[in-house]
């Protein structure tokens, strides 16, 4: 049986030169429970930067506790997961991959960050094909989506809707460029590839896609 990597540790929290309180501020730090709640709320919202600063403040009051050495790194890794998932659902696939890359630099032993990065690399291949498409091979795309469905499991619908919106935006770009025949072919293929999102495919947003390829971490 393959051993799971150990959980992220407190030493994975990077050092910082950011002061815990403004210079000259002599007020006592907030109570530990209040700091914990603030930290957890920020992490749950995916606010990585603010959550990390809150973790530094917790180091002052809880550095020797199991909460700081075990729970804090896990929650911080979760903040990166939350941000990446939010970006991915919004079609910001390259940004989601960058967030996961940054999270892995700090919490490289987190299996959740590693697994999500692998899934999003696979999704990025489909995404890149759709956002630059002139023609689509329906059978090939359907096979790609079936593989993605197996990898994404219960989160597949999020990926499918994001990818359908990407194709809708590509169709809209072609119409805006007076390439109606290309847009019609893409739309017809899209309705076969994404049969549950026919209406969405008609509501593309011209000008929102970027031509830059998604940068994938090959390691």
Describe this entry's structure for a reader.
This protein is mainly alpha-helical. 64% of the residues lie in helices and 0% in strands. The chain has 9 helices and no strands. The chain has helices spanning 32-44, 48-62, 66-89, 93-106, 111-131, 138-152, 156-176, 180-193, 198-201. Helix 4 packs antiparallel against helix 5 (111-131), helix 6 runs antiparallel to helix 7 (156-176) and helix 6 packs across helix 8. Mean pLDDT is 85; it is low at 1-11, 14-30 and 212-219.
Properties at a glance:
219 residues, mainly alpha, elongated, disordered N terminus, disordered C terminus
Task: State the helical fraction.
Answer: 55-70%
> Biggest sheet, open or closed, and with what strands and sense?
none
Rg over CA atoms = 21 Å
Overall body shape: elongated
Taken in chain order, the helices and strands follow as: HHHHHHHHH
Low-confidence stretches: 1-11, 14-30, 212-219
Count of helical regions: 9
Structural class: mainly alpha
Determine the mean pLDDT: 85
| Beta-strand residue fraction | under 5%
Number of strands: 0
For the termini, the CA-CA separation is 24 Å
What's the short version?
The chain has 219 residues and is mainly alpha-helical.
Write the layout of secondary structure elements.
Elements: H1 32-44, H2 48-62, H3 66-89, H4 93-106, H5 111-131, H6 138-152, H7 156-176, H8 180-193, H9 198-201
């Amino acid at each position: 049986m393959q051993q799971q990597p150990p959980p992220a540790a407190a030493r994975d929290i990077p050092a910082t030169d950011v002061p815990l309180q403004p210079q000259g501020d002599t007020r006592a730090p907030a109570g530990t429970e209040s700091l914990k709640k603030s930290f957890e709320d920020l992490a749950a919202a995916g606010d990585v930067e603010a959550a990390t600063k809150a973790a530094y403040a917790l180091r002052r009051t809880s550095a020797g506790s199991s909460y700081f050495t075990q729970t804090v790194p896990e929650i911080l890794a979760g903040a990166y997961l939350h941000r990446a998932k939010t970006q991915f659902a919004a079609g910001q696939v390259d940004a989601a991959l960058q967030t996961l890359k940054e999270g892995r630099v700090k919490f490289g032993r987190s299996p959740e960050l590693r697994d999500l990065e692998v899934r999003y690399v696979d999704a990025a291949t489909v995404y890149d094909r759709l956002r630059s498409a002139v023609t689509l091979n329906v059978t090939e795309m359907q096979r790609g989506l079936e593989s993605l469905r197996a990898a994404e499991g219960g989160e597949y619908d999020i990926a499918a809707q994001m990818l359908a919106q990407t194709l809708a935006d590509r169709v809209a770009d072609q119409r805006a460029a007076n390439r109606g025949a290309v847009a019609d072919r893409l739309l017809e293929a899209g309705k076969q590839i994404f049969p549950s999102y026919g209406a969405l495919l008609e509501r593309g947003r011209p000008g929102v896609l970027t031509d830059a390829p998604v940068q994938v971490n090959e390691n």
